[in-house]
Amino acid sequence: MKNKVVAIVPAAGLGKRFGSGANKPFQTLMGKPIVVWSLETLDAVDEIAEIIPVLKEENMEIGIEVFEEYNLSKIRMIVPGGRERQDSIFNGLKVVEDNDCIVLIHDGVRPLIEKAMIEEAIRELVKGGEGGLDGFDGVILGVPPKDTIKEAENGIIKKTLKRDSLWAIQTPQVFPYEKIFAAYGKAIKEGFYATDDAALIERYGGKIKVIMGSYRNIKITTPEDIDIAEFLLGRRTN
Questions:
Q1: In Å, what is the CA distance from 153 to each residue of 19, 157, 166, 193, 195?
Q2: What is the CATH number of the domain that holds 48?
């Protein structure tokens, strides 16, 4: 593959739903900080040349110590986060030096991401993102929802959505650097904030492909999610 891949790992969120004062990315999950699980998997992907974690200012020092302890050799620098997730990722994008690279963005609190899924997302972008009728500007992971999804307003159901056309979106999300950087620059300038990175590409006319992720690729949001992650990791290692 001619383009190198740079992974940006946002782990600077406030973690409000996790509990007051909790330092979620560095909470222990089966003896290891949550963020390290994701970083170790990314570090093992041959296509990834560099990893840029984005941390809260007060976590920069502990981040250096922890990442050295776990010998995460592809981390060249740690970037301070911003007010929102989007600001944090833009901080990471601004320090990328290779404008021709591929950027992979993965939430630092999705510790169960599998190496094969990362590799598949990169392959799909390289294969289909080089122009032509089927060319696209990003590849994202998702899973079809299992539950019936309804749209409501003020507690009153407005309509039931067709489940067969819906996806619950995950990370990693993979983009050509110039595409995602341009979309971020425009969105920040306009003051537009989205809940995922692909939405910014979509906003400015880009084409996104979704591929199957995994129901195990959960995001640690509440303390109960730690129990779920421990159970799933236990099944993986047994």
A1: 28, 7, 19, 22, 20
A2: 3.90.550.10
Could you give the CA distance from residue 79 to residue 202 in angstroms, rounded to a whole number?
26
Specify the pTM: 0.93
- The amino acid sitting at 121 is A
Ranges of residues in the chain with a pLDDT under 50 are 131-133
- In 83-193, the DSSP E strands lie at 102-105, 138-143, 150-153, 156-160, 168-176
Over the stretch 123-180, which tens digit does the pLDDT of each residue have? 999 987 654 445 789 999 999 999 999 999 999 999 999 998 999 999 999 999 999 9
Q: What is the pLDDT of residue 134?
A: 58
d(Cα 189, Cα 203) in Å, to the nearest integer?
14
pLDDT the model gives residue 147:
94
Nearest to 27 by CA among 237, 232, 220: 220
Per the structure, the count of domains in the chain is: 1
Element at 212 (helix H, strand E): strand 208-212
* Single-letter code of the amino acid located at 12: A
Domain that holds residue 97: 5-237
**Distance in angstroms (rounded) separating the CA atoms of residues 5 and 215:** 25
Residue 93 to residue 79: CA distance in whole angstroms: 10
Pick the closest to residue 229 from 113, 104, 116 (CA basis): 113
8-9-14-17 Cα dihedral, nearest 10 degrees: 130
The pLDDT value recorded for residue 95 is 97
Q: Please report the pLDDT score of residue 3 as a whole number.
A: 80
